[in-house]
Amino acid sequence: MNAPVYLAPFAPGGEAGIDAATCERLLSICMSKGGDYADLFFEYRRGGSFAFDEGILKSASRSTSVGLGVRVQKGDATGFAFVQELTWDAMKRAAETAARIAAEGGHPHGVALQPRALPKRYELDDYSIHAPSSDKRELLERASKAALAVDSTIVRAEASFSEALREVLVATSDGVLTFDVQPMIRFGVLATAEKGDKRQSGSSGGGGRMTMGYFDDKSPEWHAEEAARRAIVMLDAQEAPAG
To answer: Burial level of 103, CB count in 10 A (0-12/13-18/19+)?
Structure first.
């Protein structure tokens, strides 16, 4: 199994060059005013969504964000600061700002970080975010065609695909340093059935923290046929009696 390619600038080997030594320096600044506890929360988010309806790709979007949150606690008080620019000067200012919650003067507080590996909740060799957009459009088109082919009563088929990748780095003044990756995909089909003056819809969807290999088990056609089946069943559904 290949190791996934990290995208965050603060990830191991990332362009921002943020390592244990950098985090230790920032945490020392956080604790320099006499704080009781401090932590650094680096976060990278990248996502995308695609919607297919009436035989065409109706919408597609992409988003990316990155930042650092700094927290310092002193007694019952908490100081926060946030920056999106991961340069040393910007991160240092954030640490100094959060540290001001403790106004006792304090003194430099050295922090020694110990990298901690998190349990492997899921084994992934790659993330959907790396797959070409054309592959995702093809999945949606397949679902739309499959739903419409189920029965002549199916008059409309909509399909959607969304994905997200979240990478986080956490460093704390009590010595914790850990990195985590949290991918997510979601696929859904909505089929509309019509017979006479009756119109009903059915849906099917799935996903989770997995790769595009999800569709090897649950194909777009499977979801499309299930959504269509539910819509057709609803055409003849009777309302439950009162009481």
So the answer is: exposed
Residue 140 pairs with which residues in a beta bridge? Answer: none
Query: What crossing angle do the helices spanning 88-99 and 20-30 adopt, rounded to 10°?
Result: 30
3 state SS of 220: helix
Evaluate the CA torsion angle 75, 79, 80, 86 in order and state its sign.
negative
- As its CATH architecture, domain 20-235 has 2-Layer Sandwich (3.30)
The two structure tokens encoding residue 218: 């649950």
Q: What pLDDT, in 10s, does the model give residues 70-125?
A: 999 999 999 999 999 999 999 999 999 999 987 765 555 668 787 877 777 776 77
Average pLDDT over residues 54-78: 95
Domain coordinates of the chain in residue numbers? 20-235
Q: What is the CA radius of gyration of the chain?
A: 25
- Residue 190 has a pLDDT of 98
